[in-house]
Amino acid sequence: MSSARRVQQWVTFGRMWYLFDAKWQNPFDASTKIVKVLSGSHKPIYHNDIDCGDHVVVINSAQIALPGDEWERRVFYHHTGYAQGASWTLAHQVHEKDKTMVFRRAIYHALDTSLLRHARMCRLHIYPDEEVPEEILRNVSAQLRQMRAVPKRLDHYTEDEVKNFPKLFEWPKDYVLET
Amino acid sequence: MVFIGRVFCGIHKPHQYMQTHKGWRMRGNPGKHKAWSRRRILRLSSHFYGRRNNCYSIAIKQVYRSLNKSRIGRKFRYPFLTRLWEQRLDAACEELGYSWPGMRVHLREAGVALSKSVLQNLAIYEPRTFRSLVSLAKSLDPDPGMNSLQGPPPSIITKGMI
């Protein structure tokens, strides 16, 4: 085997497609992970001038979770370009308008301000629910792990599961619980 | 030496010549022609765009400008490259479940004197060599945790044991 073929690597410049489930995820935390994949800095061939990033398909962006009261406090700035064209919109109002916008803006701000920023944004595919077009979904070959576990609410458990949940003791029947 | 014929034709003028103890010679340095010194500058500007490529009076300004910029850039070259190599080695180590700071410490312990530049070249062009170096560093790590080569240490209870 020649020395040129010995180091031949076929898929070095191939583009991977990753799936990320945004359900109950903080988009500003998740952006650190997704930006790394979009800009290609998770590969040893990384250089800030070459376009070696991978695709990320984000699903369930309608179910993102912002920490604390950020839905009420975080504002999104837009300027039309004309005089007095500035506007500030609350996060929950933006989310009502477009279920992918809050996530997209979080990634956009986390990306480097370079000439490749828009090319990297083009590799981000965000869908508000689990309905992804077939031609996108058939490219996906890997998954990005969620940053935090999705909590299960009490009303998501079946009645049997609640009844059979192991208990250390039973409350006395005449005990008045503080509500 | 005077070329009388050329003097008569008006190509060489008598006032351009001076007498020395060795005889007549041309004033100034007759071996140096303007075209050659210009050529030296135009070779440096050959890759520029537009008239600054070929027109001397425009090219000379751009050549001084670009030489000055390359002098300034020399200062930032190695900080940039060091950062780039570290980013690449971070990525290469994380692919193999290890970290670059850990690898750096334990390669030094093992006496492997490879620079960052060489290591990142190995990570790109010879990934199997790089993997073996990562395994060497991992094996010297006293607390490799869950990512050790021999599996988790016995004090750790994992899901499969219960």
UniProtKB/TrEMBL annotation, chain A:
Domain of life: Eukaryota
GO molecular function: mRNA binding; structural constituent of ribosome
GO annotation (BP), single: translation
Protein name: 39S ribosomal protein L13, mitochondrial
GO CC aspect terms: mitochondrial large ribosomal subunit
Organism lineage string: Eukaryota, Metazoa, Ecdysozoa, Arthropoda, Crustacea
Keyword annotations of the record: Ribonucleoprotein, Ribosomal protein
One matching Pfam family: Ribosomal_L13
Gene: LOC108672705
TrEMBL record, chain B:
Domain of life: Eukaryota
Record-linked InterPro entries: Ribosomal_bL20, Ribosomal_protein_bL20_C
Keywords tagged on the record: Ribonucleoprotein, Ribosomal protein
Gene3D superfamilies the UniProt entry points to: 6.10.160.10, Ribosomal protein L20
BP terms from Gene Ontology: translation
PANTHER family attached to this UniProt entry: 39S RIBOSOMAL PROTEIN L20
Gene Ontology cellular component annotations, sorted alphabetically: ribonucleoprotein complex; ribosome
Species the sequence originates in: Hyalella azteca
The organism's taxonomic lineage, starting at the top: Eukaryota, Metazoa, Ecdysozoa, Arthropoda, Crustacea
Protein name listed in UniProt: 39S ribosomal protein L20, mitochondrial
Family: Belongs to the bacterial ribosomal protein bL20 family.
